[in-house]
């Protein structure tokens, strides 16, 4: 019943469908053919992510899309329509890119792991969406690009997430040429974790999600936060920080339970504390 309610709520409120089962919340961009990140789409997606972060019944979030395009990036028609504003659209542009940045950070800062399920083209801010997720699984038909340079609009904000996933040379190759890479190349670059046949994509993603959902939610929250914090630090500072994190983690009841279960050769019972 909860699953049905979630789907009805999403269908009524906006272009993001939500379905939850067994601790896995599946969010589907549902405004094909482009699944563009309009202000309405970004607001709906961020609202669902914020709710998931506060909902103890959600262990993992899967981000997917309907149609042949995962996400085509910003809604260029929506942006262009504001060029007639007195400020030539400046205020609206600033708002759009700020909302997009907030959305991407909501994924990174969310205490729940977020997995991108990519079956189709992810371009510009759509690629940014994939790169911002903790894991990304793609079908063999998936493709990726940052084509802004082709239309006079460098993909500067997508560059932030892209450059934190792939090497500088690979990032600059994509940003400067605007050319599309296939799923195999995206895996080689480090943009996605795995590439699988389309017919197995959902199955593989679900398996990943189920495996992660079986872990202590507190441990996942601690670990995800520590990962992104230490990634921005120098080596010594990162070790100091993570040593403090591990000390606090050791004092948590779930760590005590998990270690006790391992030693006692039994299945742990997580309390999330």
Protein model, in words:
This protein has 273 residues and is an alpha/beta fold. The longest helix has 20 residues, at 90-109. The model is unreliable at 1-12 (pLDDT under 50). It has helices at 2-13, 39-54, 76-80, 90-109, 125-132, 156-162, 168-177, 183-189, 198-213, 217-231, 235-250, 253-263; strands at 16-21, 24-29, 60-65, 69-71, 114-118, 121-123, 135-139, 143-145, 181-182, 194-196. It is globular and about 65 Å long.
| Secondary structure: number of strands | 10
Helix proportion range: 40-55%
- Anisotropy-based shape: globular
First and last CA, distance:
28 Å
Structural class: alpha/beta
List segments where confidence is low: pLDDT < 50 over at least 5 consecutive residues. 1-12
Secondary structure: elements and pairs:
Blueprint: H1 2-13, E1 16-21, E2 24-29, H2 39-54, E3 60-65, E4 69-71, H3 76-80, H4 90-109, E5 114-118, E6 121-123, H5 125-132, E7 135-139, E8 143-145, H6 156-162, H7 168-177, E9 181-182, H8 183-189, E10 194-196, H9 198-213, H10 217-231, H11 235-250, H12 253-263
Parallel strand pairs: 2-3, 3-5, 4-6, 5-7, 6-8, 7-10
Antiparallel strand pairs: 1-2, 8-9
Helix pairs in contact: 2-4, 4-5, 5-6, 10-11
Task: Record keyword descriptors for this entry.
273 residues, alpha/beta, 4-stranded mixed sheet, 6-stranded mixed sheet, globular, disordered N terminus, single chain
Give a nutshell description of this structure.
The chain has helices at residues 2-13, 39-54, 76-80, 90-109, 125-132, 156-162, 168-177, 183-189, 198-213, 217-231, 235-250, 253-263; strands at 16-21, 24-29, 60-65, 69-71, 114-118, 121-123, 135-139, 143-145, 181-182, 194-196.
